[in-house]
TrEMBL record:
Keyword Manganese (UniProt): yes
Catalytic activity: ATP + (deoxyribonucleotide)n-3'-hydroxyl + 5'-phospho-(deoxyribonucleotide)m = (deoxyribonucleotide)n+m + AMP + diphosphate
Protein name per Swiss-Prot or TrEMBL: DNA ligase (ATP)
The keyword Transport is annotated on this UniProt entry: no
Class of enzymatic activity (EC top level): ligase
Any Gene Ontology biological process: DNA recombination
Domain of life according to the entry: Bacteria
Residues covered by the ATP-dependent DNA ligase family profile domain: 598-721
Gene Ontology molecular-function annotations: ATP binding; DNA binding; DNA ligase (ATP) activity; DNA-directed DNA polymerase activity; exonuclease activity; metal ion binding
Organism: Microbacterium mangrovi
InterPro entries: DNA_ligase_ATP-dep_C (IPR012309), DNA_ligase_ATP-dep_cent (IPR012310), DNA_ligase_ATP-dep_CS (IPR016059), LigD_ligase_dom (IPR014146), LigD_PE_domain (IPR014144), LigD_pol_dom (IPR014145), MtLigD_Pol-like (IPR033649), NA-bd_OB-fold (IPR012340)
Length: 811
């Protein structure tokens, strides 16, 4: 391999990247490597708008200062796994590339295809162009006009489109003007959509002749904005949302919000702007991505899956186009085991095969030893997107119940026949499956609802004895309870000792009485680490295994042969080196291994320790804190860089002053003589916060108004009490559009008909949409009102590490 070449793996595909130092944008020094990085990072937002559409590429192999060339037909050297579809031209058929995954976008970037142009239609199940699923207007400013004038025309167009029942989404084109997109149901031909767009352009020109022109004549365009309706023609294309532009700087065709169009300083965005917005806002036009308009036919390998589900009623992935994507040759396919709390608890065992997940329902899960064979019933094939699905399927829908990932990973296939499958599956590091050689043997029936036996083999693929499962079976895990208060800490299910809120005065008095020390309070996620002598596992305070979520913490750890339980906080630092709970949200809510792997370098985390407990002898659980601290400090010499032991303060006021000056959350005063009490809120740990925060349970949502008309306006929250869920008020401040969209996806399946609060005021209940009170969040606030509501509450983020039962009022 040449020195300037790299062989990389992207989304399970192998790609050869070359000339990475080649400068493609001389004015900014932007290299091909940076272009590839941009496309790989923006892929989750871009793919929904280009998938299934033939891509015409505009390439600049020598950089934007050179002459580009258009490419339609896919070059002969393109990788075999890259999807392509033929379109007939006068000279014969041309194979156009399709970008259905990150690897496809990275390949196109490797060829210096900076601009990706697509039509407003997608290929149908028959391989022919389907009716257009979106309308586009290109607002092109003439001499003397610019983005501000385009924004004014866009607002006028928006009024007309919304009156037609179409919601438009603006995109600054990265060249001169704006594009407006609106989703269609797929009931009109391209010619009919073009005619509608033409009449709309003429109406705008008639109403606003001083600024709008609908004719292509350049002589009429000085100081005006051309409303170009012609790109709805089935043979024409438009620059794809999130595509780069071959301009002097790396400008992007960037989806925008309508609020942004009111800014008199509206400008085109470059790579860095768009990536930052992606992290903070998500995709402003996500609503017209994958599922815009009709989702297509129901023929193909996923027809049974699609026929049983309505994308508007279930949070499960319902693919628009049920065509299978072949597993790339030479790559290890994926598996996933999902715990499914439906009418009866069972585990769904899924193996990637021929572009789908072949699936079985296994009532008792994977057998722990070769001595037990568990029944497995084959179900319909599932889309590959299901491999990362976790959520609650609403009551009344097929498969209703809660789905979580028990384990997932890759597998090596030995045999796949109609009646027998043999494989070796390797789960997540620290996951419950480990590495297991398994066999599925069909006993009755054929296809869906056929019955099989799931068997754990005695030997591995090399014929060597295979150990029994090191972890309990799924059923045994579900039956386990956490240890009661003051029981010896268990390596299997640890629990956290909890602190009590206090004022500075109370903390000072306690410190003097105890001879206490003070620790910084870290704004992160509480995590217990379990070291079994060989590897480290992380558990959230709820007891959920969080090891796979933070691979950068558990790697390269060696704490010696003695088992330990560590207590600390997982934190993410902001640009100034302060813990940021908002930044940590980018890691806390991830489940997919691919998403986690992508986010690790972008949002690194650290594990900040403040306690260590040896496990073994009975007296270890009641060691005083001063001895546990000594153990922790002795341990610090063995810790890798990502795990730290911060210093303690002898003076409460000095600690408060330091934490306040550094913008930290607060401090915790601890009694050195105290023992560790799992699961207990102990007065031996007193926390003093600079900013008051409160964990709350979400029990409802109110619809938005104005700019939030299609989103959540505010959340109704409460705190559990012996009398029921006490209503603590509304929270709307601090919620970004991205957070609102995620919350709507999370809460929609939890909608119920009854008010979960014991005391909701009539004014707040009038237009409320109630949800199951199971989702925990954290807010900051000014003070408690006399009636127990939060004043000036502001959103901080979700707390997936905690359950509703954990929430108590923090006075």
């Amino acid at each position: 391999m040449a020195d300037d070449e790299q062989l990389v793996r992207v989304a399970g595909r192998r790609l050869r990247l070359t000339n990475l130092d080649k400068v493609l944008y001389p004015e900014t020094g932007t290299t091909k490597a940076e272009v590839i990085d941009y496309f790989s990072r923006i892929a989750p937002l871009m793919i929904p708008h280009v998938t299934g559409r033939p891509i015409t590429r505009k390439r600049w192999p020598e950089g934007v200062q050179s002459t580009p060339f258009f490419a339609k037909d896919l070059e002969a050297g393109a990788p075999g796994w890259l999807r392509r579809m033929p379109i007939q031209h006068s000279g014969g058929a041309k194979d156009y590339p399709l970008a259905d995954d990150t690897a496809a976008l990275v390949y196109l970037a490797q060829t210096a295809a900076l601009e990706l142009h697509v039509p407003q239609w997608r290929f149908g199940d028959d391989g022919m162009p389907a009716p257009p699923d979106r309308l586009v207007l290109d607002l092109d400013p003439g001499p003397g006009a610019g983005l501000v004038e385009c924004a004014a025309v866009a607002r006028w167009a928006r009024r007309i489109l919304t009156d037609m029942g179409l919601e438009p989404y603006p995109v600054t084109s990265g060249s001169k003007g704006l594009h407006l997109y609106a989703a269609l149901e797929g009931a009109l031909t391209s010619e009919q959509v073009s005619q509608v767009a033409k009449e709309l352009a003429r109406a705008l020109e008639s109403d606003h002749p001083e600024l709008v022109v609908s004719s292509m004549s350049k002589a009429l365009r000085d100081g005006k904005v051309l409303v170009d309706w012609s790109q709805n023609n089935g043979k024409k294309t438009t620059i794809a949302p999130y595509s780069l532009r071959g301009r002097e700087r790396p400008f992007v065709a960037a989806p925008r919000t309508w609020d942004e169009l009111d800014d008199p300083g509206l400008r085109h965005l470059v790579i860095g702007d768009v990536l930052l917005r992606a992290d903070e806002l998500g995709d402003p036009m996500a609503a017209i991505g994958f599922r815009a308009g009709a989702r297509g036919g129901t023929t193909g390998p996923l027809s049974a899956y699609i026929a049983k589900r309505d994308a508007n009623r279930t949070p499960e992935p319902v693919p628009e186009n049920p065509l299978a994507h072949a597993t790339p040759a030479g790559e290890r396919p994926r598996f996933v085991i999902q715990e499914h709390h439906a009418t009866r608890l069972h585990w769904d065992f899924r193996l990637e095969h021929d572009g789908v997940f072949a699936s079985w329902a296994v009532p008792r899960g994977v057998p722990p030893t070769p001595g037990r064979n568990n029944l497995a019933v084959q179900t319909e094939d599932h889309p590959l997107e299901y491999g990362s699905f976790e959520g609650t399927i609403p009551r009344g829908e097929y498969g209703a119940g809660t789905v979580t990932i028990w384990d997932d990973g890759r597998y090596d296939l030995e045999k796949w026949r109609e009646d027998e499958i043999i494989l070796t599956a390797e789960g997540r590091p620290g996951g419950p499956l480990g590495r297991a050689r398994l066999a599925l043997i069909r006993t009755d029936g054929d296809g869906e609802k056929s019955t099989w036996l799931l068997h754990r083999m005695k030997t591995d693929a090399a014929g060597l004895p295979q150990p029994d499962a090191a972890t309990p079976t799924p059923t045994e895990q579900a039956d386990r309870r956490p240890p009661r208060d003051h029981e010896t800490l268990s390596l299997a299910v640890p629990r956290a000792m909890l602190s009590v809120s206090a004022t500075p005065g109370i903390a000072r008095a306690a410190a003097q009485r105890w001879g206490a020390w003070t620790e910084i309070k870290w704004d992160g996620m509480r995590a217990l680490g379990v070291w079994d002598g060989e590897r480290l596992r992380l558990y959230a305070r709820s007891g959920a295994d969080a090891t796979a979520r933070y691979p950068d913490i558990v790697r390269d750890v060696d704490l010696g042969p003695r088992p330990l339980v560590l207590d600390g906080e997982v934190v993410a630092m902001d640009a100034s080196g302060r813990p940021s709970f908002t930044r940590l949200q980018q890691r806390m809510n991830l489940r997919s291994p691919d998403e986690i792997a992508r986010e690790v370098p972008r949002t690194p985390v650290q594990y900040v320790l403040f306690d260590a407990l040896p496990v073994g002898d009975e007296h270890d659980a009641v060691l005083p804190l001063r001895e546990r601290r000594r153990l922790l400090e002795d341990l610090s010499a063995r810790l890798p860089a990502q795990i730290i032991v911060p210093p303690v303060f002898d003076d409460v006021d000095a600690a408060l002053e330091t934490s306040g000056r550094l913008g930290l959350e607060g401090v915790v005063v601890k009694d050195p003589a105290s023992s560790y009490q799992p699961g207990v809120r102990s007065p031996s740990w007193l926390k003093v916060k600079h900013v008051r925060t409160q964990e709350v349970v979400i029990g409802g949502m109110r619809p938005g108004r104005g700019g939030r008309a299609s989103m959540i306006g505010s959340l109704l929250v409460g705190v559990p009490t012996p009398e029921g869920l006490h209503y603590c008020g509304r929270v709307g401040s601090g919620l970004s559009e991205r957070a609102l969209a995620s919350l709507l996806d999370l809460l929609a399946p939890l909608v119920v008909n009854t008010d979960p609060f014991a005391d909701t005021p009539a004014a707040d209940a009038a237009d409320a949409i109630w949800v199951q009170p199971s989702v925990v969040a954290e807010v900051e606030f000014a003070e408690w009102s006399p009636n127990g509501t939060l004043r000036q509450a502001r959103w901080r983020g979700l707390r997936p590490d905690k359950s509703a039962a954990d929430v108590v009022r923090e006075d």
